[in-house]
Amino acid sequence: MSISPELMYAILSMDAYNRGYGAGIADGGQGDLDGLGDAIGTQIGTATVVARSSSDENSDEVVAGFYAIAYDWNGQTVISYRGTWFDKLL
Amino acid sequence: MSAAANTAGETVRGRGLRRLLIILLALLAAHSVYRIFYPSVEWRQKTTVTIEVDGEIRSASSVVSLNVSYGPALLPEIKPIQSRQRGEAVVLEVRAGEYLFALLVPADAMVSRYYIGELFGEATAFTRAHFLRRLPAKLQTMRASQELPKKLYPLLVSFDDIADPKTVRRVDPDDLAASFGAGVALQSISLEITDEKVTKGRIEQVLGWWCDYRKRRARLNGSTSIAISDNELSNNLGTGAFRIGDCT
Description:
The complex is a heterodimer. Chain A is of the alpha+beta class. Chain A has one domain. Chain A is built from three helices and four strands; from the N terminus they run αββαββα. Chain A has helices spanning 5-15, 60-64, 86-89; strands at residues 43-44, 47-52, 67-73, 76-82. In chain A, strands 1-2-3-4 form a four-stranded antiparallel β-sheet, with helices on one face. In chain A, a hairpin with a 2-residue loop joins strand 3 (67-73) and strand 4. Chain B folds into two domains: 1-37; 38-244, no CATH class. In chain B, the strands form two sheets. Chain B has a six-stranded antiparallel β-sheet. A four-stranded antiparallel β-sheet of chain B has the order 4-5-7-8. The radius of gyration of chain B is 24 Å and the shape is elongated. The A-B interface holds A 21-22, 26, 28, 30-33, 39-41, 50-62, 68, 70, 82-88 and B 71, 75, 77-79, 82, 85, 104-109, 112-115, 151-155, 214, 217, 219, 226-231, 236-241, 243-245.
């Protein structure tokens, strides 16, 4: 069964909250530092992770509470991001 | 000025001071009530890496400070748990000029149920304010050093050339000999709650390039791009894996 683009976009927009530093959920992997994992090549359904922002605690992205991840899905690039955490700015 | 005018002035000043005192007490009381519902806890923990080199035991430690506070999630984007860390990675000289680094575990991962929560055996860990309220007593039970299970090991790395951050490579905790030669093996990685000072300066002492890379916000391969599109270790590790904060 094919999935509608709208549903896939909704899943991927939610997925950004579950990967990388400060992920909302965890899979219990080694040290579990990256939620569901954000290694390049990771699959979610038929989408594949092709790029992401840094999870380094000294990076401007993390200090600002920003995280972005890009997927290849059906030949197009889908970018999903989260931030800003207000508490990081206080 | 007459005595009556002086008295009137003092009365006004007195009322002003009283009002100021009442406001300060009210703010203090409000803060105390806020902290009951939204607690904040800070502690220091020491990670010790112990290895065997040609039959000789060697170890090195590092103390980091962690602060966890719980706050109201007024908007969906606001995370109720805020965690901060200060300190640096464990640096262990295996042989002259050859170093093993046990990298910092990110603060949010450290305080998740898969770290401290795992050690406490608490499924909810830091996701509940009531756990934070009980945390200080819990931390006291961790003053004795305890060995970490392998799943909680920090990432271990070394450098082919300590002066070149691009040469960083992962070290297999089960096979230190593959990185450092025969006769080298990991004995344990342990954690304890401590009152010792936060470790400072060792990383910059050993990694001469650290401060320059920190200032440039560069990752270990020198890249400053936002997007990371490969799994190469030097493109994924930044200076924050070795030390949180600015140059000393």
